[in-house]
Design brief:
The structure holds two protein chains of two kinds.
Chain A: E1 10-21, E2 40-51, E3 55-59, H1 66-74, E4 81-86, E5 89-90, E6 98-101, H2 113-124, H3 130-143, H4 159-172, E7 177-181, H5 189-206, E8 209-214, H6 217-223, E9 226-230, E10 238-243, H7 254-257, H8 259-280
Parallel strand pairs in A: 3-8, 3-9, 6-7, 7-8
Antiparallel strand pairs in A: 1-2, 1-4, 4-5, 9-10
Helix pairs in contact in A: 2-3, 2-4, 3-4
Chain B: H1 8-31, H2 42-54, H3 67-98, H4 100-113, H5 121-129, H6 132-157, H7 161-169, H8 174-209, H9 216-225, H10 229-256
Helix pairs in contact in B: 2-10, 3-4, 3-6, 3-8, 3-9, 5-6, 6-8, 7-8, 8-9, 8-10, 9-10
Classes of the chains: A alpha/beta, B mainly alpha.
The structure holds adenosine-5'-diphosphate and magnesium ion (MG).
The site of adenosine-5'-diphosphate has 16 residues of chain A, from strand 2 and helix 1.
């Protein structure tokens, strides 16, 4: 990974980041990982550099700190130690250069699909006129094939449609990085496959960087340039980085037959198995 | 038997039949003298009701107002006092919901004042305002402010944190998040509180007006002095029907803002 050693090429750079939760949910009290100080060390010394326009997947056993890491990148939470740089500047909070897609869509139920996207656009560009905000919102919704559903409320949409609105909303603020936290986890297999294709398309057409948290090995293989493997928590770290063959477009059957992909798949499975067993045996 | 096993028109029919039966039983009991001497029957009451409704808005001086005139006087007081309470309760509830400082400062007063009977405020109001009109409005305000206040702040405290995270991730300011996300998200809570507040306001005005000299509550007091029981029943029916109407009004608003989250 020669390119990774060059600081200037990284668009997002995570440097020695640690995250300690001090107010832990009650359930956690019985688990290990409590330090003498009383905090729960979710992440410890995480280092990662993400290059512009790459598609990066983060994969790891559940509860290891993937969402925590993504929230730190989004600026929704602050690292306890270390820092995260975006284009060389330290991240101090959320910003329109980063768009976030959450697992459970989180559309405002009192707004239609169109209004949900308009809310994002008007938030990111306070001086925009009502008319052009609406026009832009329409464009982004039609990009995710929702021309016919713009006037619908979230309760009138399927999970897949809602997630497409959420993706349109995240893209509508014209971010440089799209951060997605298990965006397809709650969807059925067919919808999931369809949305994966759509995200690939958007990524190719928009030239955004995508960071995707997933627990699906196949999803990571199908979509990514690079896969980030995380160890199980507490004190989770990045245990491996895997660069995938940059073959695009990538067909679904390719990852099941191509020897390079098969080798990576084997590696991922071994890793996840090991880390999950580590959790079970604690 | 579940509720749904009765169709809607059937349900309406059953309701009508039950009212008719109640009127018949009332009439029989009254005529048999089982409710005391000279207790009015339902027929007499309905006849009175018809008389009052045939010309509801006459005005022959303070002690001889049409029932509609009195009703409008009461409604006006309720609307002013109630509106004031909503205007105060919603922003204050939002503030208490978002700020621990505000909730800690306000809580002792809310806890202490909420259970106080509305009528306890009457002397205070009369002393401070020296005016029965303002006192009535004040009593309505102070007794109907609590449910909306509490329901609003509860709504804010139990808001789905994901909405706030999305808004924050888009870079929204605190103020924008409160007006564009928190407020609509707690709208169902606000309306639920407003519905209870409305019920209380209408409940309280009748009691308060007995001491205030006009309005539907005073009408009852006056008819009691005239020993006219049928007229009191007329007032009770009018008060009840108006209460239903007010409740349904907010019920309709609630339907409008039910997002089925
Ligand atoms: N706000 C919080 N307070 C305390 N502990 C937390 C908090 N958020 C997450 N954690 C803990 O940190 C660990 C990592 O959580 P998370 O990032 O959600 O994992 P993942 O997304 O990989 O499943 C978990 O053990 C979780 O319980
Ligand atoms: Mg997660």
């Amino acid at each position: 990974m020669p390119a990774n050693n060059d600081y200037r090429e990284a668009q997002l750079s995570i440097e020695s980041v640690g995250k300690v939760f001090t107010s832990e949910p009650g359930l956690l009290r019985s688990l290990s990982g409590r330090r003498a100080s009383g905090g729960y060390v979710a992440l410890e010394d995480v280092n990662l550099r993400i290059e512009e326009n790459t598609f990066v997947s983060i994969i790891g056993p559940s509860g290891c700190g993937k969402s925590t890491l993504l929230n730190l990148m989004a600026g929704l939470d602050e690292p306890s130690s270390g820092q995260i740089l975006m284009d060389g500047l330290r991240i101090r909070g959320p910003g329109p250069d980063r768009g976030v897609v959450f697992q459970n869509y989180v559309l405002m139920p009192w707004l239609t699909a169109l209004e949900n996207v308009i809310y994002a656009i008007e938030t990111a560009q306070p001086s925009i006129s009502k008319g052009s905000a609406k026009e832009q919102a329409r464009e982004y919704l039609s990009m995710v094939d929702l021309d016919k559903a713009m006037g619908r409320y979230p309760r009138e949409m399927s999970g897949g449609m809602k997630q497409r609105v959420a993706i349109a909303r995240a893209l509508s603020i014209k971010p440089k990085i799209l951060l997605m936290d298990e965006p397809f986890g709650a969807l059925d297999a067919l919808t999931r496959g369809y949305l994966q294709e759509e995200v690939l398309q958007l990524w190719e057409n928009h030239r955004v960087t995508v960071v995707l948290v997933t627990h699906s090995i196949d999803e990571a293989l199908l979509l990514s340039d690079q896969i980030v493997l995380m160890s199980s928590g507490p004190n989770a770290r990045i245990s491996d980085l895997i660069d995938l063959p940059r073959i695009r477009p990538r067909k679904r059957n390719m990852i099941e037959t191509h020897p390079d992909f098969l080798a990576v798949k084997q590696r991922l499975e071994d890793h996840l198995f090991r880390e999950t067993r580590a959790i079970e045996e604690k | 038997m579940t509720k749904s096993s009765l169709s809607k028109p059937m349900g309406l029919l059953v309701s009508i039949v039950s009212v008719v039966i109640a009127l018949v039983v009332w009439q029989i009991l009254a005529k048999q003298g089982l409710l005391g001497k000279n207790f009015p029957g339902s027929l007499e009451t309905l006849k009175e009701l018809q008389w009052w409704l045939s010309d509801p808005f006459f005005n022959n001086g303070p002690n001889d107002l049409g029932i509609g005139t009195n009703l409008l006087i009461s409604l006006r007081r309720v609307m002013i006092g109630y509106s004031l309470s909503i205007v105060v309760a919603v922003p204050l509830g939002l503030l208490i919901g978002v700020s621990r400082l505000a909730s800690s400062s306000a809580n002792p007063f809310i806890q202490l004042l909420k259970p106080v009977s509305p009528l306890a405020w009457l002397p205070i109001g009369l002393f401070v305002f020296r005016d029965s009109e303002l006192t009535g409005i004040f009593v309505i305000f102070i007794s109907s402010v609590w449910p909306t206040l509490i329901s609003t702040s509860f709504g804010v405290q139990t808001i789905n944190p994901d909405y706030l995270r999305v808004s924050r991730s888009l870079g929204a300011s605190q103020l924008r998040t409160i007006t564009k996300v928190v407020l609509p998200a707690v709208m169902p809570n606000i309306l639920a509180g407003m519905r209870i507040s409305m019920g209380i306001a209408w409940l309280v005005i009748v009691a308060a007006e007995m001491l205030l000299g006009s309005g539907i509550g005073y009408f009852i007091w006056n008819e009691w002095n005239n020993l006219s029981l049928p007229n009191i029943f007329v007032a009770i029916i009018v008060i009840g029907l108006t209460g239903i109407l007010l409740d349904q009004l907010i019920g309709a608003l609630q339907k409008r803002f039910d997002y089925q989250l």
